[in-house]
Amino acid sequence: MPVSTFSQAKVIAQWYGIRWCIEVYFHVLKSGCQISELQLETIERQLACLALYMIIAWRIMFITMLARTCSSVDCEVIFDRMEWQAAYIVYHHESPPATPISLGEMVTLVACLGGYLNRKNDAPPGPKTIWRGLQRIRDYAVALDANKHLGERCV
């Protein structure tokens, strides 16, 4: 698209930034949710499944972007108590703090559980390590909840 002013160039650059986010979203949808692997018998089932996976892909993108822009907010704006406590216990091997950790710290924990290395000069975690970590967090949260229901009983 030809441009003749700096303000037009800024608009084009903003469009490109949005386009990149859209491409990453569809990468999450295709690779993370593996929609191309679906083998549902009817188009209605495929559309229903696609609608659900689109919400999941959006949540992964939302978490990724929110952690980059609002990392100091309380992680409970996105994660429930059981999720962040389970992530904390698994990653740190100690009891979680009484108050919720920051969203930035939680997303880093999730990403580390999904393969993010968190080295000093690494870029912020991306959607791929976040989606992998989220899959693991759910299992950890279920296990933590089950453990709390056991109490002091022996099995």
Description:
With 155 residues, the chain is mainly alpha-helical. It has a single domain (6-150), classed as Transferase Inhibitor Protein From Tn5, Chain (Transferase Inhibitor Protein From Tn5, Chain A, domain2, Orthogonal Bundle), CATH 1.10.740. The chain is built from five helices and no strands. The model has no long low-confidence stretch (mean pLDDT 92).
Gyration radius, to the nearest Å?
A: 19 Å
Derived from helix and strand composition plus strand pairing, the structural class reads mainly alpha
Tell me the name of the CATH class.
Mainly Alpha
What's the helix-strand series? HHHHH
Major β-sheet, in short?
A: none
Percent of sequence in beta strands: under 5%
- The total number of structural domains is 1
Task: Output the CATH homologous superfamily.
Answer: Transferase Inhibitor Protein From Tn5, Chain
Write the CATH fold name: Transferase Inhibitor Protein From Tn5, Chain A, domain2
Low-confidence stretches are none
Count of separate DSSP helical elements: 5
Helix fraction, binned, reads: 55-70%
Shape: globular
Termini separation comes to: 68 Å
- Number of beta strands: 0
The CATH architecture classification is Orthogonal Bundle
Average of the residue pLDDT scores: 92
